[in-house]
Every structure is written in structure tokens, then in C-alpha cells.
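Inputs:
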Amino acid sequence: MAFNEQRRNDGQPLDGGVYAAVCAKADAAARAQAGLAQASTEVKDALLHAMADALSDHADRIAAANGEDMREAREAGMDEGKLDRLNFTVERIGACAEGVRHVSSLPDPIGQVVRGYTLPNGLRLTQVRVPLGVIGMIYEARPNVTVDVASLCLKSGNAAILRGGHEARRTNAATIEVIANALADHGFDPALVDSVDEFGRDGATAMMQARGHIDVLIPRGGAGLIRAVVTNSTVPVIETGSGNVHVYVDAGADLDMAIPIVVNAKTQRVGVCNAAEKLVVHRAVADAFLPMIAQALANHGVELRADEEAFDIISDAQIRGLRMSHAVREDWDTEYLDLTMGVKVVGSLQEAIDHINAHSTGHTESIVSRDYEAIESFTRRIDSAVVMVNASTRFTDGGVFGFGAELGISTQKLHARGPMGLQEMTSTKWIGYGSGQVRE
Amino acid sequence: MAFNEQRRNDGQPLDGGVYAAVCAKADAAARAQAGLAQASTEVKDALLHAMADALSDHADRIAAANGEDMREAREAGMDEGKLDRLNFTVERIGACAEGVRHVSSLPDPIGQVVRGYTLPNGLRLTQVRVPLGVIGMIYEARPNVTVDVASLCLKSGNAAILRGGHEARRTNAATIEVIANALADHGFDPALVDSVDEFGRDGATAMMQARGHIDVLIPRGGAGLIRAVVTNSTVPVIETGSGNVHVYVDAGADLDMAIPIVVNAKTQRVGVCNAAEKLVVHRAVADAFLPMIAQALANHGVELRADEEAFDIISDAQIRGLRMSHAVREDWDTEYLDLTMGVKVVGSLQEAIDHINAHSTGHTESIVSRDYEAIESFTRRIDSAVVMVNASTRFTDGGVFGFGAELGISTQKLHARGPMGLQEMTSTKWIGYGSGQVRE
């Protein structure tokens, strides 16, 4: 399906030359992918090992390109958190190469039979896993994503068209050159992993319009990036990432267990999508629990935004070093991504569930309870990709789930939900083996 | 995610009142769906039986409404094929009711454990099937789709927001009223199955923009409808339907088997997406096969559009009653949906595969051959939802596949590919059962 006119995010017509060039890259990737789709697991694994070796061998060159990106970003005033994510040292490149070797050790989903049966007329049906085709990835300035996505795509028989953050363009170009050489050395078409960074923002816009050329588009990054892709793309999108994550401490909770879970969920790593942003506490344990958790969170430098009831209980307890303010309506829908936590008291399990389902982004929620019925109700009624019971929300992660590197965490319900690994990068094909059957 | 401004297909701003009203219906459906998602299979099956009984009991009333739609459509000059699809007689309503009973007899996908395992830290993970949520369906004037979609949605725990063809609006309104009454009689919220027909085309446009309110949108109908939805929707779409379907007769084919397969694929039912549109024949058997199949197809009134080589072979054979013309470039990409068939001669299996992959809509292709290697290569390399071996393409059908009624046939790779039944109307949720685990 072709489109006569492409438009950019800002409503201006897109340069037709850029659109044509991006489609040409995607079509070359598709042709190369048709070959990769037929490659055996052995051949793909050997390719990944060669790619890992090449990344290690050329780590100096990639790190040098990254040094230039880092210098420019620092001069442009990039904040420390982003600088840290952009930084791609020889050591980090080595860890990425190790990740590629790990992906090669994972089971190959391609060719798996999902289901199969024989129809009454003797037609034998099997549904088998096949690659998705050409996967487009739009992400921010995190060079490790380039390597992770390339390795997951190649293992699952897919091609990758990449648009990384502008600030990482030299690093990504050097990385993709190393990968392309490894592909060519193994008799594969380097078009399997290609970048549209050379076209700047228009490259990303062209990807969004390249329906029929790119099979699926995965944005990975901040809420603004994801929203822009979701709004503008005619290519099917898998929405990832944003996490307004809740921990609910039930009337039946083991409060001694709840404290480390809440502290871990909030503070073990800040600024990630599976970190908790909200604490919801049942009124029956609020008087006992809130002062304890407020002290524990204050010890970790967490600032609280409390509803009126929680504010009063915690204020009365006079916690040392605590920063706390009254929550406003917007707090309940905010993903802070820093050392801030919203706190709310509820009168019932049902109120907790309703509040969470109304405000969650559908990523991960956790219940702390010893009450079987409460746990059953919470796990059944909470409408999120992952529901934890008596465990930290930080476990929602492809690596933790055993997927190897992950492509992102899907917060939509279509195709994939939760961490996306190799299996989520596949489609299926039905094959019907007959002996002359026709329909009556 | 809300959008500040909605636009119609024609680029004009959408009436904000219509958008708000459609979102309100979808939100009411979502609230009702949260309840249905908790209903046991027994309860849902009893509801479907009650719905089937109500359809039978009120068949007269629905048929009367359909009579008015039929009269108006006839006066407006609707063609016979469309009139036949619009026609919803007491007998057809009874058959639909029987279909609802059949859906109630199918296994319930909700709650199925897809996979599960225990992490090294003792966290026990299970991935279970859950409903998608609110399913939006945009379709043409075929009243049976209203019943099929409602029954499949309810069985799989989903709510349905329907936009049927304008020409069937009285029939659909009467049908939905009967379903709503059955829902209410069984203690369910009638908002579970609702229509936006009252808003005309703007209702469909509003559905396409109702991201965050409708979870997935499925267009079912002609290529124009599907293209409009795919282009304009910000709600995730499952693309269905169009079928430029090929039968390939290989050098190793049993020609006596090939004739009934080609004739059945082309003529058993015309105007459906799994009917064959193109015949591709290996040069090694072209002289022997083309005159035979041309005669067989001519006997069924099929007109041929042949490439030069096929044209010459068939012309030489002087087939009785055959209509044939030279194929033009557009033929290879055309879904005729009538008694027309394109015919092409290829010099190799690879040429056949390349031609099909270049021109197919990815629905269904069939190979006729006795050659193991040719079959292996064809089934692996053809990039379509269904690949048949020595069987008619007409078997690509949810009913034939054992899915009961079907929601359509997906020709995209994301989420569902091929016939969509109950399982394709589900998402999944991960549940992690812990005992205080936190991340190190």
C-alpha cells in the first residue's frame, strides 16, 4: 500500500526523496531478510558469535566515535543521566558483545510448531513461527540498544531498520559498520541491519509512513517519542515503556515484607519504567505501616506526595528528614522517574483496584498480602501487563524473565504484552498438507 | 491518550460531540467488560444460549427490519451480490442463532496458561490469556457479522463496539436490541454490545481516533474500507481480508489432481477472499496442463487473462466457449472477486515464488506438486498467512479451521495471521507469585 503524500510530525510535507530512500533501505532489508529467514539456527548462531567478536575487536573504534558524541553532548549541556546512557566505553561494548553471545545461546523460536491438527477431510494443518520481517526501531541516544536490537532481530530471522538518537549518531554509525562487516564476512547482506540516521528527523517520519515496507515499528524511549510514533505511524506499532507503577499494601499484608518491597521497587533503580511511582495502602494498616515506610523511604531520599489521609498520619509520626507535600490530582497520572512517590490510602481492595486501573499505564503493579482472596481478586482484576504478588515491581524485565536482551516492554494488548524477547519478534504461518482436497 | 482534534477521512474536523459520544460508549463498554472478564465459562455459555434463543424468538422482528433495509437498498440500486449479503431472513437468523450455540460449545481461551516457570530466586511466573478489552468492528452491510462478532466477543470476555454498513442499519439496530435484552436478562450490562450507527460515517471516524478507549479496531469488508481504516486509525488495527490468491501448478504436479483444485479454488464460491485469482504454471507442464484447465474453467464460465506464453498455448488448443484476453501489468495485482483468472507461465519454482511474493496480498497460496523439495521450498519461502499443499485455497476459513464463527482473516503479521477465532481475541497477562523477593 503506497501513500501519495507523506507528512512530517509538524504537518509539513515530507521530502519525497527521504521517503523513497527509507523505503529503498527497507525493501533491501526485506530482500535480505527473505534469505535470513531460511538460515538454520546453527548459521544464525555462528553469525552472532562473529558479530560479538567483531564488536570486541573494534571496541576501540566504536568507543572513539562515542567519545566525539559524548564531547558534543556535554558541550550542548546534556544532563548527567542522559550522558551516562550515551556513554559507550570499551568495557560497556564488551558487555554488549557478551549479551550477543547470550542471545545466540537462547532457543530459536523460528520453525516452532505453535499448534496443529488434522481436519475431518484429512487436511493436516500446522501453525509455525516465522519472522515478522522488517522491524523498525526508533529510540533515543542509547548505543547499547543498537546492539541489543540487531542481535535479537538477527536471531529471530528479522531485518532491522534503526533510527537512534541524533546525539549518538557517530557511535551508532561505527557500531552498524562493524555489524555490517560481520554480516558480509558471513555471506549475509549488510542491508539486514541498516540505519536512517543520515536523514535526521525526516528519517523517523518516513519510517512511520513506510507501511508495506516496514512490518512493525517499535518506539523505545520517553513518553513524547512514543506518543509521536503512535499518533503518526501508519505502520503497525508496538507501544512500549511508560510505567506509572503501583505497589498496593493490603489489609492482609505482612508489613515487614512490605517495607523492603516498596523500598526496592522505588529506589533500587530510579528513572526506569518498572520502578514504582505510587504506594496505595489499605486503611486497616495505614496507621501502622505509613510511619514505618515513610521513615524507610526518607532514609533513601524519597520525597512523598501524599493524599490528605496519608499526609495526616505521616505528619503525626514526625519522620526524620522526610520531604512531603500534598498530592494534587495530576500526581496520580504522573510517572516521576525520580525519587518521588505518591501515597494514597484506600478503604477497600476494590477501591485500590479501581484507582490503579484508572491511573496505571498498564505496565506493572504489585500487591503485598497474605490473604488468598485478596490476591486472587487483585491478580484477576488488575488490567496490566504484569501483576506481582509479594515481590518488587523491578522484576518486570526481559533479562529477569529469561528472554536474554529485551526489545522493550509492551504496554499495549495487541501482539505482545510485557517484556518482548525473541518469541515476541515472530509471526506465524499456517501450512495445510493435503492430498487433493477441495471444498464441497 | 487523548487527542485534541479529530479529523474525518476527508480531512475535515470531526464533530467533537460525536467523538465524545463514541468514547462514552466505549468507556461504558470497558466498564461492563471488566465484569464480563471475571465471568466463568459456564455463565458466559449460558448467556450465549439465551442470546441464541432470543434471536430465534425475535427472528420475525429482525427480519421485518431487514425487509425495510432491503426495500430501500433495492430502490437505491444495490447489486444482487450485495443484496444477497444484506438479506437476513428468518431462516438465516436461525442459522446465525445456531452459530451462537456452536460458539458456546467451543473451549474458552480465557485463563489458559500460555507458559510459566519459576525464576532462580523462587518467583513463580505464569502468562495467562485475558480478553483484549473493547473490540471495535467496522464492517459492511452484512447483518450476520453483527451476530458473529457479538458472540465471539462475549465468549472471549470482550466488549464490542460495532459500526455496520449504513444500508443494514435497521437490521443491525433490531439485532443489537435483541442481544441487549438478552444481556440485561442475564444480569449483564447491555453496554457490552453497542453500535455507533446512529452517528453515520462520523461514528466510524470517531472509532478510529478513540485510542485509549477502544483496544483494537478490525475493519472487515472491501479493500477501500480496510485502507481507510489502516490509514486513519490511531487505534491499533488488525488488517483483514483482501486476497490476491495464487495456485501454483509445479513441474512435479499430478495434473489430474490440479484440475479440480484450481476449479474449486476459483469457482466454488466467487467474490470471497480465499477464492483463487491467479494460476501460475511451470513451463515443464504448461503445454499439457493449460489446455485442460482452460477447458475446465471455460466450462465454469471463467474468463482468462493470460500472459503471452499462456495465451499462445491456450489459443492453439482452440477451447470451446473460452473468453480470454492478454493480461496487462495491473492484472497481477488485482483481486477480481468474479469469474476472472490471471494465468502466468514461469520457468522455475523460484520464479513462481518470487512472482507470488511480489504480487500476493499475503492471504493464501497453494502448490500442487508431488515433489518433496519443491513443496518444502514453497511452504518455507512463500510469505503468506496460509500455504496449502495439494488442496484448494478455499479452506482458509475460521469455520473450516475449527474456530467456530470467525472475526475475519488477518493478512498482517502482527498479533494474528490467518483466520481469527476466539484465541486471536485475547491478550495475555503475566502474574508473578513471590514471597518477598526484591531485586539486588
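The domain at 245-400 of chain A is CATH 3.40.309.10 (Aldehyde Dehydrogenase; Chain A, domain 2). Flag for discussion at group meeting.
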